[in-house]
Design goal:
This protein is mainly alpha-helical. The protein is built from five helices and no strands.
Length: 124
């Protein structure tokens, strides 16, 4: 039986799909309003807690308001970070997402830039 498509065509199609995904995901990362994505503040609190304090956040049953996700006074004083209703999630993803957070934070990036760096890392 003769194959209808060559391996080269298949690779080209796969590369096209991956490229399309990267373009759409990066566009979303830049156009979606920061701190307002679905549960984004709660997930970011989790990432920040691991990146800054090497621990998972306290589990809360209240939804996290977006303003609470960036309370620099608490972080600066090393007070416990806010609780997150996403703290029940397994920590591996958040530990990986904490790497770009730590890099951006160590470069003294502003809050929006740090948030966007973490978002862009999720594209990959």
């Amino acid at each position: 039986m003769k194959l209808r498509y060559s391996v080269r065509q298949a690779r080209f199609a796969i590369a096209g799909v991956i490229s399309l995904y990267l373009v759409i995901a990066a566009a979303w990362a830049f156009t979606e309003r920061l701190k307002y994505g679905p549960d984004e503040p709660a997930h970011f609190i989790y990432v920040r807690s691991i990146g800054s304090h090497l621990r998972i956040p306290i589990l809360s049953h209240k939804e996290t308001p977006h303003a609470e996700a960036w309370d620099h006074e608490k972080v600066a004083r090393n007070q416990p970070l806010s609780a997150s209703h996403e703290a029940h999630q397994p920590p591996l993803y958040y530990a990986i997402a904490a790497v770009p957070y730590v890099i951006a934070s160590s470069l003294n990036a502003d809050t929006d830039t740090t948030w966007r760096v973490v978002r862009l890392a999720n594209v990959l």
